[in-house]
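In response to reviewer comment 3 from the previous cycle, which asked for concrete evidence that the modeling workflow produces usable outputs, we include below a single protein chain processed end to end. The sequence was submitted unchanged, and the resulting structure tokens are shown without manual editing.
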Amino acid sequence: MRRHAILLAALALLLAGARAASAATLAPPPGTAGSALAPTPYMGWDSYYAFAGKINESTILTEAHELVASGLAADGYRLVWLDVGWWQGQRASNGQIEVSATQWPHGLAWLTSTLHAEGLKVGIYTDVGTTGCGGPGTGSYGHYQQDVNTLAAWGFDAIKVDFCGGTRLGLDPRTAYTEFHDAIVDNASHRPIIFNICNFLQPSQINPTTPAITGSGFFTWTYAPSIATSWRTDTDIGVPGNVTFASVLRNMDADAAHPQAAGPGHWNDPDYLAPDQGMSATQFRSQLSMWAILAAPLMISDNLTTMSAATEQALANREAIAIDQDPAGIQGTLAADSGSSQVWVKPLSDGSRAVALLNRGSAAAQITASAVAVGLPRAGRYDVRDVWAHRTTTTTGTLTALVPGDGTDLLRVSVAPPPKPRPKRKPKKSKRRGR
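The workflow returned the following structure tokens.
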């Protein structure tokens, strides 16, 4: 964790002189891929942590059915993303992608059509290099336009583009991803496609000199907002079946380093939601709370047929979802930090504030903030909505909670409306009759 903080600090120093100039160019220009496809962070399901690359037609249809049957699709989780493992790298003599008839007996165009009929959207995976994280040949280098044309013709709505093969080829991430963006814009079907940049590498993750900071995921935010819908901000939070809360906090910190890059249509991506992969229910609820504060894409990566009741209940919390999906699209930031106790704040479009009281320690801690300190105007009373307890209380200004270890209290705080005046009582008419 200390090395991670030092790397982030080094990047901050490197970019300090360029921040003011780059801030004006962060918003994607009209017409770029993804500029209007995700006015709020996209939501859905991804296969990676759930199945570790072992997917086929039956798997995807089953998970999509669970997404709809559970009500999660109605809650907003409508994007079904085929990650690494959908393709083993075969191409025809003309360079055209060929998929396994055993793995996809009806073909991928049929699959997307079937899922579209259920009101879902569909994403897929590739790499800017020749060899993706899924093995030899599973990248698109030398075939960017051809592959994008194929995936668009098959009906895919989103493409995740990894950098495993890009690293092996020594590609410059900005150049490669810009070329891929151009291929998406020019796809022969004129299909709108969400573009997720997945350069997940930390500085020196491969060896002491590779990648440099400017070739790592810590640097992507400086160019990605003008070419992509979302971009990874750190390495993976784990491997399938082994996701730790410490890694979730690490990725949260990296994602929080550049909140100014995020906004409607372009989002920092700290990695997937990974319930039932090693974290406790409390820890996962913290992940979901903090991803909502960060305005992060909410992509579930869990086997939906076996997910726990606590997981389903957390994912279906529409109040937490509403914070993530707030139309203002403002990424929340750290407002106060004392030991393992932190206060995070996200301004919302109705003038209220989403406030996360995060306990990074293992023991319970009393965490306190004030309504004024989180950005609300001075007032006599405030309404405090506890998003997880679904309970509203009032306060004169103090926000406080006893937060369990690894836990997060997620609040929505607003100035309380003035009490309604009591209606004046009409005087009773006398029953005495005059003489």
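Residues 41 and 293 are 12 Å apart (CA to CA). We consider this sufficient to address the reviewer's concern, and the full set will be provided in the supplementary archive.
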